[in-house]
User: Fold these one by one.
Assistant:
Number 1:
Amino acid sequence: MKKILITGVSKGLGWGIAQYFLNEGFKVLGISRGILEDLNKNENFKHLALDLSDLSSIQPSVKKFLADEGDLEYIVLNAGMLGEIKDLQETSMEDLKTLMDVNVWSNKELLDTVFTQPSKVKQVVAISSGASINGNRGWGGYSISKAALNMMIKLYAAEKEAVHFNTLAPGLIDTGMQDYLCGEVDESKFESTLRLKAAKGTSSMPKPKEAGVIIGKAIPKLIEYQSGDYVDVRKM
């Protein structure tokens, strides 16, 4: 049975991707702080409860979690946090550090742990965002962390030639993050949210389960792209 490791499976896109690959007959190894009961009911799902902001806990926890699992077809680095939409000047260094820890350095810790194991990995896909290249006002720490993630994956691609790496922008997805962006952010100050509000409730912003199918189908196709490339799923 093929195996996939996915972070951030408790909700949103990570949950949707997990559902897709379970339906495709994979064993899904999921990492998140919590978990929904529907995943735990599937005999091909295995869960590790882990707070990825606690960097020192990743290596021992993941090493034990994967000890008897063997080769991985895919690793999907999906877990991440948005932070508050506000001007960069108003964002504290503490908040920026937290965003970098979760969105970048936790992924480094996880990958370094996996790569010290004898098992092989075919593909690594890190979920990025259009925010990593757009530079829209208010997205400060999130944009910086996702841009750093893009470069980190590109560097790993240069170092680990036997593994295929990509960062993937998944497009708009109707999650709790969108509820915040569309309901609490001042659109007159942060105009990029206007596009999100217009898309909410339309086919341009699918629900997590639908988005999981879109991303799940895209992941194998990423092998056709240069290892290390940033890819937008809407342009595949």
Number 2:
Amino acid sequence: MKDLENILKNIKNNILQPIYFFHGEEPYFMDVALKSLENDVLTEDEKTFNQTVVYGKDTTYAEVLALARQYPMMGGKQLIMVKEAQDMRLTEEEAEALLKYIDQPVAFSILVIAHKYKKVDSRKKFVKQLEKKSWLHYSEPVKDYQLSTWIQRKIHELGMKTAPNISHLLAEYLGNDLSRISNELNKLKLVMKEGQPLDGKLVELHIGISKDYNVFELQKALGTKDEEQAMRIAYYMGRNMKGHPLLLILGNLFNYFTNILLYHTLRGQPATVIASTMGVNPYFLKDYEQSANFYPMKHTTRVISILREMDMKSKGLGAYNVPDADLLVEMVYKILNVGKTKVKV
């Protein structure tokens, strides 16, 4: 949510909008804004009488607008919060009523609507009117290539120092579940001593991610054809497939080698163009260049075929019934031997 900082700052300074309509695929930013509205708009005494929280599956837009028009007890302002609004149906009649309310919101109510996990239809009149008044706030997912930067910023906000590549490690293993990432970082903050840097040992101890044996390091070892390290990681991860799901590994490696293939087709163009087309941080282009030297285009294509083959086997398609740990070792071995004399596994 691009305007989240301004929203939070204005709430703290009691500069409030009559309507906040949050929508989008990323729930984390909405939760942060909702928490601020719940905590900072009314005093604890005022909340008892003038703060109402309802859920989409239990209410309607007509009921919500009726609540917003009720005069608050003991004067002042009232806060009406609608959570899980994506579960509400909106009839044509309610859409018209909502549009009228947006045009003339009541002065004593702050109406907050959280429409999670998807965007609202931008063609609707009330949506256009909300946008026109700057009361519509889109919560956009953080793109994969932006995730490590986002994590590093959160670490900085918490006043923590880190060892190199920790944000990349967390991004690789925790994915783009921002709520989980935020919770894990807050837990780490509580257990860390003042001035202690966040390193691989702490991450492994408190989150369960090994700094040496994870999909990020496997990808790195395969990308540089470090056979000894790649096989060591494969055997280690194979002993704990529950903590290292094969489908997660396959997905990450598929994305990685697809980007190597894309890099081959873009070679010779400016770095900014290559990074933008690939959707990666320019910082990582040197890694892709190095891997592209180890894997010519035809070899990269063969690796992608191997990954598809392993995906099929892992899902039990065909006459395959091989444990995931064995499939992982087989996959790594085959990738490392692409371009060499054909061998049977």
Number 3:
Amino acid sequence: MKNKFNIDLRIFEDYYSADYFKKTREILSKFKPNQLVTMQWFQRKENTVVCGIEIIKEILRLSKIKNLKVEAVDEGDIVEPLEPVLKITGNYNDFAHFEGLFDGILSRASTVATNARKISIAANGKKVLNMNDRMDYYTNQQVDGYASTVGGIKNLVTYASFEYLQEEVELNGTMPHALIASFNGDLIAATKAYKEVFPNNNLVALVDYNNDCINDSLMVCNHFKNEIFAVRLDTSPNLVDKSLLKLKEKDNELHGVNPTLVKMLREKLDLNGHQNVKIIVSSGFDEYKIRYFEENSVPVDIYGVGDAITKNKIGFTGDIVLIDGKKQSKFGRENTFSNKIKSIKYM
């Protein structure tokens, strides 16, 4: 069977295991070789979308360890603080080295899945682009793309993000500022070149290069007319677009991509016959900013989200809670039951 998640097989050589887990296994191999333990994993935040269970099942399958009883919630289930998401019962020596590893898998994947769900809900069904590739170490793209999809954001921008997904790759990208810079700041020339090389792509113009989003949007839409699919605003939070400079500002509400700018852009596009051109916004968007835009009926069609995908880290902890079927655990970490957890097969 294919190694679906491309697990680095060095995990079975303790390459990624903390030294104290390896030493504990050696000690127990000598003094408690037949001890049967139950370990459970949990976290402490409300409305957490659990992700990583399928990856853990794949690791256990590849490990070829037999005689483990594994119980878990379903991938994508929502759990509350202290609610167990995974339990493994067996000889501790067989899986001791996986304790920290599984903590990390659940933490990373569930963080991304939970953030994706919150952002997706805030966007009220509008399309969200996961643009986190530029905000994190590149080897995280595979698991982040998978977890993002579990959480509800399926619009990804790199091939690596689709590696763990059983679906056709459909990249969602626009032009970067570097393309416009390469044409000496000429937005028309850059857009024309993009269209010529990728004639079957949706034509999306990035319009904040000159910090003049409204005029540049009208310029590019008037030039390419109905060929333009969307314009994207990516104004930095420390800037005020030229079209807003004459307005009075309180509390920086005119900085960056803001409701006033987007509403004005929509109005100008419509007045000039570009009602079908969509508006994409990015730069500093998270669930709170998206919710604010939606509550104020800002005419955004697509949101681009970066580091908000991996913020608000969710930490998981694995603890022994039973030894030979009897209660034994750190204070406050007792064996806990959940009607969501069920026995699963991993072989």
